[in-house]
Model the fold of this input.
Amino acid sequence: MAERWSRFLAPLVLGLLALGLWEGLVRAFDIPPYLLPGPILILKTLVTDWGTLMESWWITMSISLAALAVAVVLGVVLAVLFASSKWIFPILSNTTVGLNSADLNLVDLFKLYRARWWQSLLHLKLPAAMPYFLAGLRISGGLSLIGAVVAEFVAGTGGTQSGLAYRILESGYQLRIPRMFAALLLISLSGILLFLVLSLLSHLCLRRWHESALKRET
Done:
């Protein structure tokens, strides 16, 4: 328990010290907000512009989650097809690697009992691929957010359909730098939240049976 708390508190304390140093330097050198706002001003802007930023945050997250869902469906379907093929070399994704990493002795056992291909897939190959799939899912979660932000930078529109990336551009044009930093903060927190949620999902799916998630007895 002490080790867990130390791993959590160490980066938190370091982050707070960095923010304190940032705020101190801004105040000491009297840096204007349009050049570099301090953390306190950024948080105040996040509160005052909460309505606008939250609408944009929801649009960005909707795009990210939709892209992630499409990637999951297409990735799994294509991985199953590639892994089931005798002619295509399986290099598609982590899921393809996982589908082909099932224990060969178990594969032979399923063949010995004349299991159908879908029975081997459902009861052997998919469970074997689960850790690889979840690892790829954690990576894809962050990439989907990056892709959504990049897409908004390239082709975003104004008005009510504006995501956080457009708000960043808009704030830069208007020299509303604190709002720009507030939008960047929301994007960063969203990436962290996505990773934590997907990591929790991975832990819940694997904790009772896979070696990578089982707790070692001390």
